[in-house]
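DM between two lab members

TW: hey, do you still have the Lrp/AsnC family transcriptional regulator entry open?
JB: yeah, one sec
JB: this one, 155 aa:
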Amino acid sequence: MAVRIDEMDRKILSQLQQDASQSLDDIAGAVGSSKTPVWNRIRKMREAGIIGAQTVKLDAEALGFEACFFVLIRTSEHEADWQARFLRALRERPEVQEAHRLAGDIDYILKVRVENARAYDRFYQALIGEVRVHTVTALLSMEEIKSTTALPLGV
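TW: and the structure you got?
JB:
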């Protein structure tokens, strides 16, 4: 069942995307409403699955995770058993921040955050020890120019 959201919902979502730790009073003030209607809208959007878990954004570099690699994987394996082992291996590794299955020449792309190149090599060795891949290309991000989880809500 698709949930319809209106302009007020979009404003509330925009505020939450900026800072989900804001008080209801602050959100209500920013969107031009009162606290109770805002709370009811947030509750309905949570129940509908529009709003998921709330987390905290950590500064990776401040915590010593200075290397971000984008890992391109090609495989000649496409059987269900291989895919299940591969997906389990990715889910069990906290270094993998994102994993996508792609259309085109590359089968998968991973975003891997580690302390340094040596830590990436440990990750790589462990991964290829669990599942066979055809080729792996690791690209080191030299600078993060933009990173957001915010959706373009048009507010």
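TW: got it. The chain has a mean pLDDT of 95. The beta strands are 67-74, 96-101, 108-114, 135-140.
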